[in-house]
Specification:
Elements lengths: L16 H9 L3 H23 L3 H18 L6 H39 L9 H12 L3 H12 L4 H8 L3 H22 L5
Helix pairs in contact: 1-2, 2-3, 2-4, 3-4, 4-8, 7-8
């Protein structure tokens, strides 16, 4: 279909932004619904561009951004102003979500560090028990023994050990926990209890 000639006498398309934002600010549910249908795709696309995250994460960002928009909306005269404000709200919300996730991941890593740091009783056993421990460690994979030594003798962090061995914090933590559990079980069978 060939392009239609432009009618130079036609009225330019009216900017309905002022009416929409005024109705939203007044609490009109239909206006909020109209806004959501008209702008959701833009908000979602913007969240994806800002965060580079998966659909679920971006939908959470958009949901929170829409709630912020509904709570803080004031009448705006032009769509350009409205779009600039929407971008700012989505951007701020996305950064907040990224910040919260980064803190959560950091907190979880710190909790893993705290949980496993003092679980191994190096230096607390008598000579016979330490000799028993050295013999049991000789039965382990040499790489695992190095991880145990770095973690408990040298007080190395899981992050640093992971970097040295090219493994994730979770992998290092899991291997150390399994080794400690195995040593505890064998110690319970083979050694007299500590007093």
């Amino acid at each position: 279909m060939p392009p239609q000639p432009r009618d130079e006498h036609a009225e330019p398309k009216a900017d309905t932004t002022a009416a929409l934002t005024a109705a939203m600010a007044a609490g009109d549910e239909r206006a909020v619904e109209q806004f959501y249908r008209a702008y959701f795709d833009r908000l979602y696309s913007l969240a994806r561009k800002i965060t580079w995250r998966d659909e679920s994460f971006c939908l959470d960002v958009v949901q929170d951004a829409v709630l912020r928009i509904i709570r803080a909306i004031k009448p705006v005269q032009t769509e350009a102003q409205f779009l600039a404000w929407l971008r700012l709200v989505v951007q701020t919300t996305a950064y907040d979500h990224l910040r919260v996730e980064r803190r959560r991941v950091q907190h979880e890593a710190e909790m893993i560090e705290l949980r496993s740091c003092d679980e191994f009783p190096y230096g607390l056993w008598d000579d016979d028990q330490q000799q028993w421990l050295k013999q049991r460690l000789e039965e382990f994979d040499p790489q695992l023994v190095q991880m145990i030594e770095r973690r408990f003798e040298r007080r190395g962090t899981l992050k640093r050990i992971g970097e040295l061995f090219g493994l994730s914090i979770g992998t290092i933590d899991g291997r150390l926990r399994r080794a400690i559990q195995e040593l505890r079980e064998r110690a319970a069978e083979e050694l007299e209890p500590l007093e």
